[in-house]
Amino acid sequence: MPFTLATWNINSVRLREGLVARLLSEQAPDILCLQEIKTPLENFPRAGFEALGYRYMVARGQKGYNGVAILSKRPIMEAGAEDFAALGHARHIAAQLENGVTIHNFYVPAGGDIPDRTVNEKFAQKLDYLTQMRDHFRWRRPDRAILVGDLNIAPREDDVWDHKALLKIVSHTPIEVEHLAQVQGEGNWVDVTRADIPDGRLYSWWSYRAADWDAADKGRRLDHIWATPDIAHAAHSSHILRDARGWTQPSDHAPVFATFDL
Fold first, then answer.
1. Is the Cβ–Cβ distance between 80 and 95 less than 8 Å?
2. What is the pLDDT of residue 1?
3. I want to staple 9 with a disulfide (CB 3.0 to 4.6 A). Which of 58, 83, 150, 195 is the partner?
4. CATH number where 221 lies
5. What does the pLDDT read at residue 208?
6. Which of 30, 28, 23 is nearest to 5 (CA)?
7. What is the per-residue pLDDT across 33-86, written as a single tens digit (0 to 9) for each?
8. Which three-class secondary structure string do you get for the chain?
């Protein structure tokens, strides 16, 4: 049976519980992967989502920052959580569906403002995190798997509003793009979104700093849905719900969707 999956950096699930409920009510994905829930699990507002039919959840929480969760209408069981680069951060959770498909939900470190690991510890942590992701998928080659999340890198020239202007801006620097490509290559991951939408500018994040984010449209595609080749062919109907960036008190990210006929 087909299922629709969405990924969304919510930037505090408690602050934006109503926006999550709106998405679940209006769009009704079967599975929603959230990043930056920014709360320990004992404070996660689960009851309201259960009332909407999302009775299953696996998650890793953290007070005030990070945190990842997978909400599902369908039965899921936890399939692991990795602490890449030994940061002690809640940045990964995996779940397995009854059909054997494993979903990895990631929140890759943003990397700070200076793209130089020698002077910016956060950038070093980001590169180290990606390196360990690469090695993990090299030695544990995935199959029947989906990888989603805020990977905090816009890899293609048309994934940013101005390629040349952003070459020295964290999230689009060549070294980050290369590290992400290595992660993708070692896992043999297919970029489902770009398989569906191969051409044209495509963004999932717009800065809060813009006075009018919509008019300026200086976006980046930081949020991704990948799949292993054995199931990537079953993916379709990819899209980004841009309108959600304009909801009241929004996240700076918009949800990304894909449907899988599995």
1. no
2. 78
3. 150
4. 3.60.10.10
5. 97
6. 30
7. 999 999 999 999 999 999 999 999 999 999 999 999 999 999 999 999 999 999
8. CEEEEEEEECCCCCCCHHHHHHHHHHCCCCEEEEECCCCCHHHCCHHHHHHCCCCEEEEECCCCCCCEEEEECCCEEEEECCCHHHCCCCCEEEEEECCCCEEEEEECCCCCCCCCCCCCHHHHHHHHHHHHHHHHHHHCCCCCEEEEEECCCCCCHHHECCCCCCCCCCCCCHHHHHHHHHHHHHHCCEEHHHHHCCCCCCCCEECCCCCCHHHHCCEECCEEEEECHHHHCCEEEEEECHHHHHCCCCCCECCEEEEEEC
* pLDDT in the model for residue 27: 98
How confident is residue 126, by pLDDT bands cut at 50, 70 and 90?
very high
Residue 47 φ/ψ region, left for φ over 0, alpha for ψ in the -120 to 50 degree band, beta for the rest: alpha
Based on C-alpha coordinates, what's the Rg of the chain? 17
User: Residue 85: which region, alpha, beta or left (left: phi > 0; alpha: psi -120 to 50)?
Assistant: left
Q: Quick one: tokens of 145?
A: 């798997």
Torsion angle of the four alpha carbons 104, 107, 108, 110, in this order, in degrees rounded to the nearest 10: 160
Provide the token pair at 91. 């940045």
Q: Are 75 and 97 in contact (CB under 8 A)?
A: yes
Identify the pLDDT of residue 73.
98
Q: Look at residues 81, 188, 99, 78 and name the one whose alpha carbon lies nearest to residue 143.
A: 188
| In contact, 90 and 105? CB cutoff 8 Å | no
Give the total number of structural domains in the chain.
Answer: 1
pTM attached to this predicted model: 0.98
pLDDT per position as a tens digit, 211-240: 899 999 999 999 999 999 999 999 999 999
Q: Which domain holds residue 50?
A: 2-261
